[in-house]
Design goal:
CATH architecture: Orthogonal Bundle
CATH superfamily: Winged helix-like DNA-binding domain superfamily/Winged helix DNA-binding domain
Helix content: 40-55%
Strand order of the largest sheet: 1-2
Structural class: mainly alpha
Number of helices: 4
Radius of gyration: 19 Å
Shape: elongated
Distance between the termini: 45 Å
Strand content: 5-15%
């Protein structure tokens, strides 16, 4: 059974939703600023959210305040299943006959 989400996680997910509606994948620093959460807590929470599959790294971009590219975060893209497995199996058997 999963633990209930804490205040920091809820604030980060709300901030991510805000950026998602704007069509702008945010950096960790942008998320922390929007959610009004410390960078340390943001980093810890984002690592857990990425590990759990609730958030994903969409891309990387260069910024002036770091030598290395920073990650851009977003919600995972949901792939719709085109056909249920039973229909796919039935089609494969019909083709085989």
């Amino acid at each position: 059974m999963a633990r209930p989400r804490g205040e920091i996680t809820m604030a980060l997910l709300a901030a991510l939703e805000h950026f998602n509606q704007e069509g702008h994948p945010p950096t960790m620093r942008e998320l922390a600023h929007r959610a009004r959460v410390s960078l340390k807590d943001t980093r810890n929470s984002l690592n857990g959210l990425v590990r759990a599959g609730h958030v994903e790294i969409r891309a990387f971009k260069r910024v002036t305040y770091r030598n290395r590219p920073v990650a851009l975060y977003g919600f995972p893209l949901v792939l719709e299943e085109t056909a249920p497995a039973a229909h796919t199996l039935a089609a494969a058997i019909d083709t085989w006959r």
